[in-house]
Amino acid sequence: MKEFLQVLRRFVPPYKKYLVLTVVFNILSAVLNIFSFMAIIPILQILFKTQAASVPAGLMDWGSGNMKDVLINNANYYIYEMIESMGATTTLLVIGLFLAFMTFLKTGAYFLSSATIIPIRTGVVRDIRNQLYRKITSLPLGFFSEERKGDIIARMSGDVQEIENSIMSSLDMLFKNPILIVFYFATLLVISWQLTLFTLVIVPIMGWFMGFVGRKLKQKSIKAQSLWSDTMSQVEETLGGLRIIKAFCAEEKMNRRFDKINSEYRENIRRVNTRQQMAHPMSEFLGTVMIVIVLWFGGVLVLNNMTLSGPTFIYYLVILYSIINPLKEFSKAGYNIPKGLASMERVDKILMAESNIKEPEHPVHITDFKSKIEFRNVSFKYDQKWVLRNINLTIEKGKTVALVGQSGGGKSTLVDLIPRYYDVQEGEVLIDGVNVKDMGLHDLRSLIGNVNQEAILFNDSFRNNISFGVDNATQEQIENAARIANAHDFIMESEHGYDTNIGDRGGRLSGGQRQRVSIARAILKNPPILILDEATSALDTESERLVQDALEHLMKTRTTVAIAHRLSTIKNADEICVIHEGEIVERGTHEELLAIDGYYKKLNDMQTL
């Protein structure tokens, strides 16, 4: 319960007005329910002709005695008067109409209490999804190298849905059932405190049995949700690797692998749901046992003429049975909430994740790049092994510096330090003499444009992909960027021009077309610093020529850091740095490095053979 209340304290406060309304309507529903069922007493008195035995002498003043006695006396007096003036059958009809009217009011209040809880349920789930999405976009790239995408998707879909189905659906338990239980219990005390005390001995025993099955449910739910994440990860991997799966005829192998995970998930969720389904029959049986015991004890009180009449005892049983349903809801929630808390625990692993890329408390705001980028004694490691060691590099404004070397040597890591995707462990990265850790992240990344080996596009139109990083871009600006990137012609040849949807990750385009759209995006952003991460390595010769031409347009007047495997694309760079095992082992122009006859010369010779 403590964990459940903590979840509510985190997410429910924005919906306080709905809470107030649902509490008010629940109180109204409980009161109307009590008074509507009170009409059962005179109905039974009329039907079994017990009214004459208790005809009141007259009306009692409301302050003249015990409130219960005054209420019973005056109600009996008015009913007796009605019987005398209208007859028993007509009085029975009037009381029945009163019961129907009170029931109408009660059900109306009950509906309003449920209707006012719905905005809370749906709003909280929306807020959790929004918080998750914002957290995902704010976390550093390093977080996602340790987490599987399928697992994150499972937490945002299945786990959040489980929170809605389990925790949010149990809000009635907290804001409706306690009110009903308190009012019904107070009524039971007023009717017969002796019988109610006897009932109180039974209720805790019943409650203990109801909670017995739910105690281990949370642990089982965590395991089931973890297996659901494995299932989603398998689907995500399969969608991304379908070409390889088919090429290696591995369909059956993947099917068996998926079936194994899926069956394990099914078995765990079967156990959880089986236990959950025990809630209703168990509470139904225990509730009936309680009624039987109370019926026996109350019958003794009635038959021995001890403080309780037959009609009043029937009314007592009706109220007691009414209190069982809220108690059953408590029992049901006791099984549901652990499942939701297990999912909330998994969601919190993302929501509570610490970002090691923190916005400085008093950031230095920059709007332009003026002089140089400097790596000063930079060393970096992801875990234990150093990826970069003692990097010293200065990139002057307007110059192009190329990074070449073996795969895994640290080239991409080096350029990722400029926009602070990662923070260095030793040394510092400076722009215009200011440490990037002291800059505002938005200001820093606004200065930088990226064109990567894999063109990352979105399932949207050409227009929205090109203008992705620029708000309120005009059609003319978008077209100019596309022309410079050699993309305008093939865009205009598409079905709807710039409004054509390019498919998931640009799947409807060729590799060269995707790359030129991403270059157009960088051109429109117009950043003073440009990072090219093997932007042409995955292209055919014709596409490479078109993309290289677009890149040359993009690189004009910009400071460029280019990672390249094809040395032909960076021959004209102002400086080429050869990175080997995390260190800069050679640097100079193309001709100077060839003359050294070292690593660069070997790379060049291998590509010219």
From TrEMBL:
Any matching Pfam family: ABC_tran
Top-level lineage group: Bacteria
Residue ranges occupied by any ABC transporter domain in the UniProt entry: 373-606
Keywords: ATP-binding, Membrane, Nucleotide-binding, Transmembrane, Transmembrane helix
SUPFAM superfamilies: ABC transporter transmembrane region (SSF90123), P-loop containing nucleoside triphosphate hydrolases (SSF52540)
GO cellular component labels: plasma membrane
Entry's localization field: Cell membrane
Gene Ontology MF annotations: ABC-type oligopeptide transporter activity; ATP binding; ATP hydrolysis activity
Location, primary (coarse class): membrane
InterPro entries, per database record: AAA+_ATPase, ABC1_TM_dom, ABC1_TM_sf, ABC_transporter-like_ATP-bd, ABC_transporter-like_CS, P-loop_NTPase, Type_1_exporter
Membrane topology: Multi-pass membrane protein
All residue ranges annotated as the ABC transmembrane type-1 domain in the record: 20-339
Coiled coil (residue ranges): none
Protein name listed in UniProt: Antibiotic ABC transporter ATP-binding protein
Organism: Xylanibacter rarus
